[in-house]
Amino acid sequence: MSLPTPDTGHLRRAEYSTVYEPAEDTYLLLDALENDRAELQAQRPTICVEIGSGSGCVSAFLGRVLSPHGALILSTDINPAANNATRETVAKTPSESTFDQCRTRFVQGIDDRLRGRIDVLLFNPPYVVTPSAEVDSTIEAAAWAGGVRGREVLDLLIPQVPALLSPGGRFYVVVIEQNKPEEIIAQFAELGLAGQRVLSRRAGIESLSILRFTKPCL
Fold it and tell me: What is the pLDDT along the chain (218 residues), one digit of tens a residue?
């Protein structure tokens, strides 16, 4: 039986007009996490981080995936409205996990405390191919404008991932074909992380995929 999708009805309120609402890319990531539920529960993660949490739907759903075990699930976003939306979403989604929100890009300012300790890292990046000038041009554009190849934001994070993950830690990321997923997998391989495409789905003109990377255990 599928786990219920967290309630994000509060996003209809005016104060959340700049928050990225759950869409096909969100639901694909939820499906990938649910498919890995047994493995994630066996992993017994203690610290999980979602970068760019938006509505908080994915963070709240991860809490359900890990249940009956709990973890600290930290959600970051540069949009203060997204931080508040995430706070509301997780409050309406019962689980054994503890949730916290932080307004920052990626994990800036808290990376020293998280280095080598993140068991599950999640990122639905701005992946749409746009001119570089559109990246972060507005708070709304920050949620979808990915620049050249749709990779400008993701490429800033990639070198940081191996140091952030704990031994055996996992990184899940949403991509489209224009982002060149196989090239991303090869890039992570050079950094010592094994990766694979675990789920794909067509959504209108976009071909979405979830890539999963795993850091070797010690």
Answer: 589 999 999 999 999 999 999 999 999 999 999 999 999 999 999 999 999 999 999 999 999 999 999 999 999 999 999 999 999 999 999 999 999 999 999 999 999 999 999 999 999 999 999 999 999 899 889 999 999 999 999 999 999 999 999 999 999 999 999 999 999 999 999 999 999 999 999 988 889 999 999 999 97
pTM for the model: 0.96
Q: Which among 189, 190, 200, 124 has a CA at the least distance from the CA of 157?
A: 124
Tell me the C-alpha distance between 73 and 88, whole Å.
Answer: 14
CA distances from 162 to 2, 25, 100, 117, 141 (A): 31, 24, 23, 11, 27
